[in-house]
Design brief:
By secondary structure, the protein is an alpha+beta fold. Helices cover 20% and strands 29% of the residues. Strand 7 and strand 8 form a beta hairpin. The protein starts with a helix and ends in a 38-residue tail after the last strand.
């Protein structure tokens, strides 16, 4: 009797395993998904605003907040009228290049230098979804090598500049004139069909950012800045011009 029961368990397990394999859904068409999410992003941008009036009237540090355009805020300027839109090409597994929109809102540009796609940046940020649920936040600034982040973050951060800072006698830095703004991106520039923590698959992303410092990098120490070697053909992938399997920005040759 025990042998039969054990065999039944194995049979059910195999059926369950087969069912799971059959239920695996292939990724959605990249072009169609990019088009659908462009509509969703622009609907959000058309129905929301940020606290731009505070930025216009104060010289003190202010955090960006996003709210819905509705009474008593129905006279506010929508984000869609304040963002800059550009298309970046995403290379699919079949080799096609599909345009994906990215929208950047610059609340404060900053006074220093803009990062390349391969620089290191000292930033604080908040990540939210289109329903305004927060999926990540850095309360304190953190260093990011931009080659390690999602493409939309890497592409969007170039619209901003670093700021100035002073260090007091207790070795505490105070920043001023730093870049502040928002980056809006479709999932094709984020995690696409992958779940990542609190981010569901096919989720457009919003990053509210403060850019404090930029460090120009030379990952391979060849005397050429990584930003000049990283993605010169604009397909979002690191260049490998000598086709040796090692990206140019990591290849001393």
């Amino acid at each position: 009797m025990k042998k039969i029961f054990f065999s039944i368990i194995i049979f059910i397990t195999l059926l369950s395993s087969c069912k799971k394999e059959e239920e695996i859904t292939p990724p959605r068409d990249v072009a169609e998904q990019a088009s659908e999410e462009e509509v969703k992003l622009e609907e959000f941008l058309s129905s929301h605003f940020y606290n731009y009036e505070q930025f216009q009237s104060s010289d003190f540090p202010i955090e960006i907040s996003i709210d819905t355009i509705a009474p008593p805020n129905d006279n506010k300027t929508a984000l869609i009228n304040q963002v800059v839109k550009k298309n970046v090409k995403v290379k699919t597994s079949s080799g096609d290049l599909i345009d994906h929109p990215i929208y950047t809102l610059v609340a404060k540009e900053g006074s220093g230098q803009s990062p390349s796609r391969a620089d290191s940046t000292y930033v604080s940020y908040e990540g939210i979804l289109l329903n305004k649920n927060q999926f990540d936040r850095s309360f304190e600034p953190i260093w990011f090598d931009l080659t390690t982040v999602v493409r939309g973050f890497r592409e969007g951060l170039g619209a901003f500049k670093s700021g100035d800072f002073t260090v007091d006698q207790n070795n505490i830095a105070t920043f001023s004139n730093y870049g502040q703004g928002i980056i809006f991106m479709p999932s094709g520039l984020g995690y696409y069909n992958q779940n990542s923590g609190a981010i569901p698959e096919y989720s457009p992303l919003i990053f509210i950012i403060n850019l404090y410092l930029v460090k120009k990098t030379d990952h391979d120490g060849d005397g050429i800045l990584s930003g000049l070697e990283y993605d010169n053909d604009g397909d979002g992938l690191p260049d490998d011009t000598d086709e040796d399997g090692l990206a140019d920005y990591l290849d001393q040759d």
